[in-house]
Every structure is written in C-alpha cells, then in structure tokens.
Predict the 3D structure of the following.
Amino acid sequence: MIYYLCFVVFLIGLYGVTCKKNIVKIIIGFTLMEYAVNLFLILLGYRKEGIPPILSKGQDIFEFSKKAVDPLPQALVLTSIVIGLGVLSLMVAIAIRLYQRYGTFDITEIKKLKG
Amino acid sequence: MNILPVFVALPFGVAFFIPMVSRKLKWVPDVLGNITTFILLILSLMTMNQEFVYHIGGWKPPIGIVFVLDGLSCLLLIIINLIGFMATLFSVEYIEKRYTSKLRYYSLFLLMIGGMNGTVLSGDLFNLFVFMEISAISSYALVGFGCDARELEASFKYLVMGNVASLFILYAVALLYGKTGSLNIADVARILREIPYDNLIGFAFVLLIGGYMVKAALVPFHAWLPDAHPSAPAPISAMLSGVVIKALGTYVITRLIFNLFGFNQIISNLLIYIGIISMISGVCLAILQSDLKRLLAYSSIEQMGFIIVGLGLGTPLGILGGIFHLFNHSLFKSLLFLDSGAIEYETGTRDLNKMGLLYKKMPITSFSTLIGSLSISGIPPLNGFWSKLIIILAAIKAGRPIVALWAVIGSILTLSLFIKVCRYSLYGKGEKFDEEKFKNYKEVGNLMIVPLIVLSILCIFTGLLLIGGENGIFGPVVDVINGGVLQYINKVLGS
C-alpha cells in the first residue's frame, strides 16, 4: 500500500513537471519526483522493528540477519541525493540566467528556438 | 592488466586538477586536456581483443562492484576516446575566440568523457545510472556554455527531459532491486531467469528502456536533440551527436535488451518500428531546415534509426550492420559537426542561405565536408555505404523486405539532404549570399584542420574494417550481443 502512495507522489511530481508553466513550479515538481524515488528505495530496505545492520560481538549471525535492515538502499539513496543536489543547483542556476535574459519565468514565453 | 579503473580515474582526476592550477597559468587547460584525451585514446586502443572482469576492491560479484570489458565496451571506449581527442584538439583555437572560460570548459569536458567511459565499462545497474548522470549533468552545462538566451533555453529543455528520463531509470532500478535483491547486471539476469514473469518486471523494463530511449533521442522522445545539439559549442555538438547519444543511449539499450532481459520477437518488432519512424521523420524534418547545425542534428535522429533497425533485426548480420553503422556514424557525424564549427568560426553564420562558394576560400574544410556528406549519404567507396548495405541486406535475409525498402527510402532522402548542403554552402550560392564578407574569408588554423583531415581519412578507409564479415574485427562485438544472456552471466559471474 505504502509503495503505491510513493508512486502517487512520483506521479504528482511528474504532473508538476509536464503541466505547469512556471519554471519554479517545474523545479518543485522535480524535487517531488526525486523524494518519491528516494523514499521508495528506503522503504525497500525497511523492516519493522529492525536493528542497525552492524554486527556486534557475541551476536548470533542468523538472529542478526533476520532482524537487520537492508543497508544497500541507504547507500544508494545517499548517492542519489548528491546527484539530485547537483541537478537541482544547475537547474536553479539556469533558471536565474533565463530570468535575466527573458525577464519571465513563464515557459510559454521562452521560445526563441523553432523549427 | 588492471588499466580499467584508469579510464574513469584519469579524466576525473584531471578534471578536478585543472581548475586548481590554471587560474594563473593560462596554457594549462589546453595542454592537460589534450594530453589526457590522448593517453585515454592510446589506452583504449590497448584494450582491443581483450576480455576481462575487474573486481573493484577485490570483492567478488554479486556482492562487489565490477567493471566488465568485452567486445562491445571496447568498441565504445575506442569511439569515445577517439572523438574526444579530436574534439579537444579542435577546441584549442575554437574556444579561445568564441568563449571565455577555458578551464571550466575542459573540466566539464573531461567529466563527460570519464562518465561515458564509466557507463560503458560498468557491470552494475546503479553504477550505470551514476556514471550516466555524471556525463549527463556535464553535458547539460556544456550545452548552455555560452549563456546566450537560446543556449540557456536549449539547455533547460535538455535538462528537463534528461532528468525526467534519469528519474524513470532510477525508479526502474529500485523496482528491479526490490524484485531480485541484486544490482549486478549478470546476477539480476540470472535471477530473472529463475523467477516467473511478473507485471512489475515488465513495468521496470518499460521504464528503463523508455528512459534510455530519451537519452538516445529516438523519435517519440527526440524533442530535446534538435535544440540542444546546435546550441552547444561545435566540439561539444560533435561529442553529443557522435558519442553521447550512443554511449548513454544505444549502448545501454543494447546491453539491457540483449544481456539482461533477453531478446525476443516482440522487442525486435518494437525496435524496428521505432527505428523506421525515427529514420523517416528525422530525415523529413531535416530537409526543411536552413540552419546547418540544426539540419545535422535532425539527421542524427535519422541515423540513430538505422542503427536501431540493424540491432532490432537480431540476426548476426543485422547486428554487425548496426554496430558498424554506429562506429561509422560517430566518425562522419562528428566530422560534419566540426566542419560546421569551422565554417561558423570563419563566416560567423550557420544559415545555409547566407553561405556560398566556400570551396574557393576554405579548400580543406570544404573537402572534408564533402567527404563527410558523401559518406553519410552512402556513396560506394566510403564507409557509410557498407554499413547501410549490410543493414539492407540483413533485412532482406531476415525476410523483412518492407524494412529494407524503408531503409532504402531513408538513404535516398539522406542523399538529397546532403546534396542540398553541398549545393548551398560549398559549390553554389545561397539566396542571401554576401559578396563583401566573402572577400575576407580564409582557411581556419592548423590545429582545427588536423582533426578534420584525420576524421576524413578514417571515413575513407574504415570500410576496410569489414573484411572478414561476422568473423572479422567486429567479430567479438557481434559475439557479445548475439551470445545473449547466458554467455554474459557465465562471463561475469564465472561458471
């Protein structure tokens, strides 16, 4: 169920990117999509009443592997957050430059390229 | 022999080193950039006919991360680093005159090359995504490098479409991880063969292939390409059209379809239909253009269609044709884009109507443009002819004469397209031809000439690589693709 809710957030972000005319709203749509994907990755590794995936001394290995959460998605999410930060900052920088050149954030008025 | 990490580490290292030292020393970016790409070219030629799997940190797959070198990655490595070296040679003078910040340019350029090298070597789904994002982000920045209104607009458009595609891909990777519990491509392929088919897997497949088709600019997803490629500086256009859409798009699609999900009749039909639509609509849109670089960009879409049709046929001959056309297209399309850069550098315009009689003033540039045009339109002794011929023959042999017919039509339309280019710019006059400006034109500098000559010579002689057919130089490449899923699993995981 919660996975579907995740996908719904992803779709809301996609709606924002495709249907909104304001550049800032498009950027917000992108952040929503990114969060949805990150949340989905984290949920894949989530386990109810799980323990941190660090094996301490004297712990039974089978008991441990039954309870510990999956650490790999968390590593992936860290990487994807960093990538998201890079894309977001580039996007905002281009948006600021576009505003300086065109004097508007409305993408329907930014149309010098044709053909 | 552990040179594989060098392909990723060297360009990234130099990319971070250049901005540190070159605030005072203005010559550093040029020299370092060219030396780096030259070393990478030599290294990539050294990997020919080798196959091995490199375990990063000594961890065995499927737990550890692997770099896989096989025929297909080797071919892509050579293409990337060859065109990269030519583009950096060309950039020395070109960027000096038309743009300001060389150190940022070379940094981003090397990040792009490193990212693509990583993409073609990686044997891990998530690393594939990370390397793809590295080169994609630097190419977004490079498209908008001039900070002109049009360039920024094209860059933003490219960024939006590219980023949506990237997020689709990441979502699909997460789905596949949730389903199989592994990220190694070979291991995922092994597990997918064991578990029953599920709609979730189909959904992940669609998201992945759709995402990478945006990067490859095939027709339903092509809208960013005709804006982004003309707006970039000429060496970057050559890289984008010649290499990026192949390394990030076609290569990954091929790898995923043939080595991860497995090839079947439905996928074959899908690829062939998309290829034919790209082919015909790309060339029809290209004929209408009068902007030289925009025309070349549309023709890139068309040529990608040829490659995908060849791969989609699925027979060894078709795959050979697709792969050979991929190689040839990267040569002549980057040659043509560098030519268009040289013409723009000298005349200050990209409008075909304003050009004319360039063969009198710029003999070498116009001769190499002629070679590139003949090659792309498939005139016999040049390389473009052989690859198109093989694709058409393969279509007939596979019992699909209609596909062959469409390929012939596409070929003829390409010929007419490039007759238009030569007629307007080189040997005839456009409508708004300017006599006054024409007197001041002269040939471009030596460093810009060298890549044009090298690429023209390659265009003339690479037809010879075909000797031996499916067992010749391209044998290992065809073998990787045609060998399918099992062979790849055995190679990476060890049987």
About this structure: Chain B has a mean pLDDT of 87. Residues 146-493 of chain B form one domain. Chain B has 20 helices and two strands.
